[in-house]
Design brief:
elongated; about 35% helix; Rossmann fold; 11 helices; binds S-adenosylmethionine; alpha/beta; Helicase, Ruva Protein, domain 3; 11 strands; about 300 residues; seven-stranded mixed sheet; two-stranded antiparallel ribbon
Length: about 300
C-alpha cells in the first residue's frame, strides 16, 4: 500500500487482496472470497491477478472492493454481492429474492438427461423455479423442449424470466405465479422440483449466510421438512404424463421417506434415489417409462 495525501491510500492488487482477506478473518473462505470480490471489481481473471499483481487500483475500485468486503464480513453470500452464480456452466443473475443455485443440484439435470433423449419436444414443468436454474439448464440441453416455471414469489419469477431471456430461452419458456401445481390443468412429460425441504427445527444450526440472507420460503418446509413434497404430490397424478419423468431434489436423510411417498402416489412407476457427485442422496426420480432411452 502506498499513500497519497489527496486521494487516500493506493492499493496494489496484492496488497488489497491481503487486506481484504484479513478483514474477512471471521469467514471460513476468506481468501477465496476476497479473490472473487477483487475479480468482480477489477474485471480481471485469476491469471491477470497474478500477472498484474503490482497494478494499482483506482480509488473508486478500492472503495467498492472494501464496501463489498464489509458486506461479506456480515455473512452476505458472495452471489448476492456480485449478483450472479454459475450453474450448469451458465451464468444466472441472482438477487436476495431467489435461492442461490447450488452446484449439487446439477445431479438433477444429469438424472433427467440420463433418462430422456435431448432431441424430443418434451414439455417440462419446474415447480418452485426460483432463479430458473433447473428449468433453463434443461431447456438449454433440450432445444426442442417447451418449459413452464412456477413460483409463489412474484419477485423470483421476475429473476427467472430475466435469466431465461438473457440465455436465449425466453421464447420457449413461460413463467406462472402459483401455489405448486394448483390450477394447472395440463400434463407434462418432465416435472422437476427443488422445493423447500429443511425442517423448521434445523434453523438454529444453519449458517448465517443462509438463514439471514436467502429467502425463508425457499428453505423451510414445516416441522418434518416434507410439507412441500406432500402438497406437490397431491396434484402430481393430474400433472404428470402417463410415461412422464418426475425428479425431486431432497435433503439429507429424507430420500428414503420421499421414495415411499412418491411410490405410494405413483404405484406403477419405478422410483429410485439420485446421488450427487459425492455419492450422497440428493434426489428422487420416478420414471413412468420402464426403460432408459438412449440418444
Ligand atoms: C429451494 S428453492 C429452489 C429454487 C430453484 N429451483 C433452485 O433449484 O435453485 C424453492 C422455490 O420454491 C418456491 N416456493 C415456495 N413455496 C411455493 C409454493 N407454495 N408454490 C410455488 N413455489 C413455491 C420458493 O419461492 C423458491 O423459489
Amino acid at each position: 500500500m502506498g499513500s497519497n495525501q489527496e486521494q487516500g491510500p493506493v492499493w496494489s492488487l496484492t496488497s488489497i487482496m491481503r487486506e481484504g482477506s484479513r478483514r474477512l478473518s471471521g469467514i471460513d473462505t476468506a481468501q477465496l472470497d476476497a479473490r472473487v470480490i477483487l475479480k468482480f471489481v477489477t474485471g480481471f481473471d485469476d491469471a491477470e491477478l497474478i500477472l498484474r499483481a503490482d497494478d494499482q487500483l483506482t480509488e473508486n475500485q478500492s472503495e467498492t472492493f472494501f464496501k463489498f468486503i464489509e458486506r461479506r464480513a456480515r455473512h452476505e453470500p458472495i452471489a448476492y454481492i456480485t449478483g450472479s452464480r454459475e450453474f450448469w456452466s451458465m451464468d444466472f443473475h441472482v438477487t436476495p429474492d431467489v435461492l442461490i443455485p447450488r452446484g449439487d443440484s446439477e445431479c438433477l439435470i444429469e438424472a433427467v438427461l440420463a433418462h430422456r433423449a435431448v432431441d424430443k419436444a418434451w414439455s417440462i414443468l419446474d415447480l418452485g423455479v426460483g432463479s430458473g436454474c433447473l428449468l433453463c439448464a434443461l431447456m438449454h440441453e433440450m432445444p426442442s423442449a417447451q418449459g413452464v416455471g412456477v413460483d409463489a414469489s412474484q419477485a423470483a419469477l421476475g429473476v427467472a424470466t430475466e435469466n431465461a431471456e438473457r440465455l436465449g430461452l425466453g421464447s420457449r419458456t413461460t413463467f406462472l405465479a402459483g401455489d405448486w401445481g394448483k390450477g394447472i390443468e395440463r400434463k407434462f412429460d418432465i416435472i422437476v422440483s427443488n422445493p423447500p425441504y429443511i425442517p423448521e427445527g434445523d434453523r438454529p444450526t444453519m449458517p448465517l449466510d443462509v438463514t439471514e440472507f436467502e429467502p425463508n420460503d425457499a428453505l423451510f418446509a414445516g416441522v418434518d421438512g416434507m410439507m412441500a413434497y406432500r402438497d406437490i404430490l397431491d396434484d402430481i397424478s393430474r400433472l404428470l404424463a402417463p410415461e412422464g419423468l418426475l425428479v425431486f431434489e431432497t435433503g439429507d436423510g429424507c430420500a428414503e421417506t420421499l421414495v415411499k411417498m412418491v411410490a405410494k402416489t405413483l404405484p406403477r412407476v419405478t422410483v429410485s434415489i439420485v446421488n450427487d457427485l459425492k455419492g450422497r442422496p440428493r434426489g428422487v426420480i420416478a420414471d413412468g417409462k420402464s426403460f432408459i432411452e438412449k440418444d
